[in-house]
Amino acid sequence: MQKKTYCTERKSATTIYFSSDKNYFHELVGDKRIAIISSKNILKSYPEIFHGENTIFINDDESQKNLATVNEIISWLLQLGIDRHSYIVGIGGGIVCDITGFVSHIYMRGIRFGLIPTTLLAMSDAAIGGKNGVNFGENKNMIGSFDNPDFIIADSSFVQTLSQEQYMSGLGEIIKYALIGNEKILNLLQDNQAKILDRNNEIISKLVEESILTKTEIVENDPLDTSIRHILNFGHTIGHSIELTENLPHGIAVVKGMNASVDISLKMEILKSDKAKYIKQLLTSFGYDISYNLGEKHIELLCHDKKKDDSQIRFVLLEDIGKPIIKKMSLEQITALIG
Ligand SMILES: NC(=O)c1ccc[n+]([C@@H]2O[C@H](COP(=O)([O-])OP(=O)(O)OC[C@H]3O[C@@H](n4cnc5c(N)ncnc54)[C@H](O)[C@@H]3O)[C@@H](O)[C@H]2O)c1
Fold it and tell me: What is the pTM of this model?
């Protein structure tokens, strides 16, 4: 079986298994007691995964990604008598993965865990890199931890049951990896558009693998998100404000955010117009609506954005396709350029 191991400064290494055996995690957990955190939607689409193990099926709506759900899970773990010798396994999208990582980090001061991401976004992005957490009121991912799972099982066949919106959301993050430097993804996107839109598993698994390689390489160099890891935020600063204001899936808002970053790069004469045109065509060729219209609410959110530092925002621009740069910009500068 193909696998990849990566390691950060904190805790042990994470091994990512590229497997479509939906029961493979049992081999990894061995004879340890296990508690599974999953979602009602996963149970509905994949009942065959669950064989009577201790499992909590949470409501994995963004509005439930909070401390109340964490409390509920911790009470359940205590009732079961789960201890530090046990294992927690999260099976679901980014919400389940983020919550599983956070609960595992704080329960009894830390218990080992593994993740089985089931959305395209989670397997190519959210599950990778050790960032876990929940929202606090309107503040997204405000409470959390850095902690890496022992294992991640990347099974691209899960994407077949995703809604079209969720699929396109994950694809948006994958396109981001192409634009910040993964040429193999860029070529796959160019050469296999129809197959990708048709969810061809062979191509999707290549895209997921390449995305994981890019993210793990960046994360290994900056595990605590203080420098180079910021390039992963390409499209996210504005995308985040669009996601919250327009209630769009994360990756779809990021696509709009990437388009806005391209426009800013163009206006600042950092990016050439033919390259900007190419990127816009690539995005629209996959059917994305790349238009954006930023109002007061977006600006307010930009103002509160956690990437804001000393009244400046660390903004990711493109010098070329595959060449991101991080620029500290004032809010006034950004709004003048996108106004
Ligand atoms: N930790 C990180 O580094 C990181 C990075 C990006 C995003 N995130 C977080 O990830 C979350 C978004 O994750 P997401 O996009 O994976 O969505 P999600 O977890 O919200 O799942 C979306 C929907 O798809 C359903 N679903 C999941 N897998 C399915 C499958 N195989 N078939 C059918 N339905 C399925 C879920 O039940 C849910 O209703 C956000 O909370 C975001 O903050 C975290």
Answer: 0.94
